[in-house]
Each structure stands twice: as structure tokens, then as C-alpha cells.
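Form 7-S
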Amino acid sequence: MTTPDPGSDGPASDVVLLAHGSPDPRHARDVSSLVCRVAAAAPHLAVRAAYLDHHPPSVAEVGARLAEVGDADGRGPVALVPVLLTRAFHVRVDVPAAAQVLAEASGREILTTDALGPDVLLARALEELLRQRSECQVVVYLAGSSRRDAVDELVERLRADLIPERRYAFATLDDHLPLTTALRQLDVRAGVVGVSAMIAEGVLRDRMMRRCAERGIPFAAGVLADTDSLTRLLLDRVDAARS
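Output:
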């Protein structure tokens, strides 16, 4: 896991991890766990979560808290990290809107980072989830998006970065990359395992597991929030924003 910069001995820097949100409580549980992992890896950062939808705290609520902290401690800019895998609608539209709300509510400068993908550390995170699996063929399942170009960008980067010891095919929950098409690229008789490119548990990952189970395909345990590589990636994004 990434260790903090030993030169960071000033006041704690504020970081907001901006997640999508879900009506499923497992999503918030896993994002909260991710906040704790990032904070433990970099004690000089004050890390919080905010959500675009479904449950608190909202961006405005986190902004109000940051205003109180800023008044008390005179802290500087806030790093806003979208906990989103592609440069799709939420990153293009919702994240800039959230940054504006956060700036207005906090009275602080907001440094918005890139989305988490594409990045080689997402491949490393998936490999962490697959460490306990012996299968040499993998279906990487993604949520999908109306911005298919953003999904294709992520898939091509993963295809290039994932270790060659396994064979990979990619599927999405929408009709962009159907599971049936992905399986035709693999030899199902030789054994296939599914793995989700999802930050957190929830209804979408459940749907991925069901679709694989219907075809007799086991599913790797865990989500990206469980991995050291995702923690490293988040800290890389924060470092880039602060540099």
C-alpha cells in the first residue's frame, strides 16, 4: 500500500472521494471502507466521502463541514476525486457540477482530479481480486454506459495492462458487450471465472454474478474497494491534484 509523503508535515489536506451512491447500503459500506484505507495509508490527509445520489452525505453537506474546518484551521484547497471508472456522463457533467457546489458550500478552492480510469492500477486491482483463483480465463464484467466510447477506452487499457498469464474477455450489463459474445472468445470447457470491475458491492454486481451463475461460471470474491491498488490509485490522483 502507498505510504504518505514524508515531507507532508503541514496541516492535513482535505480530500473528498465523490462516489455515485446507491440505494443498496453495501455501496456506502464499501466506500466508507475505502475512505478508511486511504486515510490509513496517508495520515496527513483528511478524507471524506460524498455521494452524487441516493444517500448522505451530499456534496453540499460535506462542503458545509469543510467550511467549518476551513474557518477553524485555515486549510487550503480541497482535492475532489471522482470514484468513477470511466470518463462518461457522470465525469463530464455531474462531477463539474458537484465541484461547483462544493466550492460554494465550503468557500474553498476545489482541485478536481481525473476519473480513476483508464489506469494501469485498475488492472492491478483486478489481478488482486483474482489471486485466489486458478482459472486461466476471465470474464471482466463492467457496468456499461451510454458513453460507449468511454467504456471502450477503459476496456482497451485493461486489455493492454492485465497480465498475459490469463486470457480475458469483457462484458457489460447493457447490450454493448454481451456476455454471450465474451464467452465465445474463451474456451468455456477449460474453466472460466468472472470478476467485477465495480468499486463496491450492490445490485449491479449481484446481476453480474447471476448472469455468470446461469452459465455455470463462478465469480471472484471482492470488489475494487478491497484492493491496495485502488488505494494507491486514489492517492496518485490526490498527489497529481496537489502538485
